[in-house]
């Protein structure tokens, strides 16, 4: 491979995931994609992404989109992708919201009232999972726990309400669909995500001698992967060995670490939040590295 394909630490990088997959189709039973920074870039399809999806459908390779987008319901995410000129069926997307269904059932939370910071999409997937929600700070005393959503809101007021509630009720669940610290926005920018907000609240509680334990649902945590894998096996009506599924993403801490810990193969694309320099410094190593998901 030419020296231009060398990472700063000497590791090799291939040009496109599409080319690799066509050559290694017999090794893969299913593919899991991150969305932003992988299949889309700046609200537009990444070069070659539509062709890759069309090929997967033609070859009848099961695939899913795994997104930590906690501010949009799966229906909204599908519509946003359509506006980006990428068409997917609702059953082809798995979001951090799907882990909430399992959590509500496991902890017997159905019907309980939760204080919602920000939004979790329309239709509200917290309500769909069986919870009642309120954004009214005056109702915090009636709440069983907190959900950390996304989008812009009055951070100072809302975080202060949540902080004081948790200081009084440290055992109350604080549910965080999106564990990420940031997410990419246009022109190479970043916005603060729910994971960072939850860890900020956790740090503030710790300064008061109180430990809280946020419950994370999205990548790299297992709930989103379990739900997606269950869908794969339901679709093909057979067991799919985890080492025959490959996770393709742009985040080392979310996509690569989560896929690896779940037993999937991992592929990193360098078109999102991870640069070659970040990869060279990281202890998290993907199995495969590509410049992009498709052929430029």
Q: Per the principal axes of the C-alpha atoms, what is the gross shape?
A: globular
User: Total strand count, please?
Assistant: 16
Q: Tell me the Rg in angstroms.
A: 20 Å
Question: What string gives the helices and strands in order?
Answer: EHEEEHEHEHEHEEHEEEHEHEHEHE
The structural domain count equals 2
Question: How would you characterize the overall build of this protein?
Answer:
This protein is α/β, with parallel strands linked by helices. It has 2 domains: 120 residues, Rossmann fold; 119 residues, 3-Layer(aba) Sandwich (Rossmann fold). Helix content is 34%, strand content 20%. The protein contains 10 helices and 16 strands. The strands form 4 sheets. It has a 7-stranded parallel beta sheet, sandwiched between helices. A hairpin with a 3-residue loop joins β11 and β12. The longest helix is centred in the last third of the chain and has 15 residues. It starts with 13 loop residues before the first strand and ends with a strand. The model has no long low-confidence stretch (mean pLDDT 92).
